[in-house]
Prior knowledge:
By secondary structure, the chain is of the alpha+beta class. 33% of the residues lie in helices and 21% in strands.
Amino acid sequence: MNEKFEDASTLQSLWMPDQVSTIASEVDSLFYFILYWVYFFLGIVIIGIIYFGWKYKSNKRGVTKPLDHNNLLEFTWTLFPLLLTMVVFFWGAKSYLKMNIVPYDAMEVNVSAQKWFFTFTYKEGFTISNELVVPVDKAVKLVMESQDVLHGFYVPDFRVKMDIIPNRYMITWFEATEIGEYDIFCTEYCGTSHSQMLAKVKVLSKEDYEDWLKKANVVDESIPLVDLGEIIYKKNACNTCHSIDGSKMIGPSFKGIWNTTVEHTDGSTALVDENYVYESILEPQKKIISGYQGVMPSYKGILRERELQGVVEFIKSLK
Length: 319
Ligand code: CUA
């Protein structure tokens, strides 16, 4: 990203993120247009206060001469702001349409938000967590839904931000203009681990993207199960709720839980074995361990068989 500090647009990035999408510069230009006019009017008001304060200071009490009206002044302060707000309106409306009308040739990715991670489902038939991989210079349409509460999808470098409201699809799109890795933030307060709900957009060249697509659908058999489990534990945000050092978080710690008998909120008990872990991942609401709340989303369709086996082995390894 260092070479970017050389071009002119980075003058702005002192307090604005880089511009990495087709609409970013448009959003910024309008923002600066409004900002500089605000400075201008602020200047007039401040200078006016000081000047009139000085001009009309007097120790004498009394009434000043009555003022009638001044046509020229009144026309100016009506027409000029009207003109400015109309510019802002049409410019804003034009940009708004551009941001909301998805180009016909956009590729589609389904986004699911849940406490507290994002999953991205590709048409090719696989789902990945917390990492959206896209080709550069290609419009990407996101069809987003929430499994639980209100979340937000925000990529500062793209100037793309859309709330994800439960019980409906929310649509947004972007076209990344530079290869790189960019942050995705959840921007609606969605509970305890809201601030941990972080993901990345990886923008690849067209060729790298095709390569990635071929591999993405295949589970890497060369990784030992226990290591795969650890990768899944981090990648799928298990770590936002389950510790591996015995500390109590939103969910029970994985450390030492294997092969123990746990008690549930309904009074029943069960042994933590393979079947128990599988069920807890795929149908987390079925059995809630005493002292915890049933807030975990299901990983059905998100984790594949080998990945589930990996999680089991990983939990086994945490004695
Ligand atoms: Cu999801 Cu905040």
